[in-house]
Amino acid sequence: MSSEELKEQIKEMLVTNLMLRTPKEEISDDLPLFGADGLGLDSIDALQLVVSMEKTFGVGVPNSEVARVALATVNSIHDYIVEQLGIAGQSGKTGKLAP
């Protein structure tokens, strides 16, 4: 799966599992997911997102500190999934994995 395909799958997961009214096409990769300046997700949405990530990608989020960073944007979710699954060559802006 390419980096762009993974990001599309993340957006689809967000829209479907969180029942967002925002179409996935309107969710940019760097749009904040939480807070008034972005999609406006809240703590209940965060819990649903964690469960969705576990079901969809087999990737869990161990604590709230990790969640705060990993769940910030589509890009950060992408990078976290790539890092956890060890998919070489697909890291985004964080550069946590070598290409």
Task: Explain this structure.
This protein has 99 residues and is an all-alpha fold. The protein has one domain: Non-ribosomal Peptide Synthetase Peptidyl Carrier Protein, Chain A. The protein contains 4 helices and no strands. Helix 1 crosses helix 4 (74-85). The model is unreliable at 91-99 (pLDDT under 50).
List key phrases describing it.
single chain; 99 residues; mainly alpha; Non-ribosomal Peptide Synthetase Peptidyl Carrier Protein, Chain A; 4 helices; 49% helix; 0% strand; globular
Quick structural gist:
The chain has 99 residues and is mostly helical.
Task: Note the topology.
Layout (H helix, E strand, L loop, with lengths): L2 H15 L25 H15 L6 H7 L3 H12 L14
Helix pairs in contact: 1-4
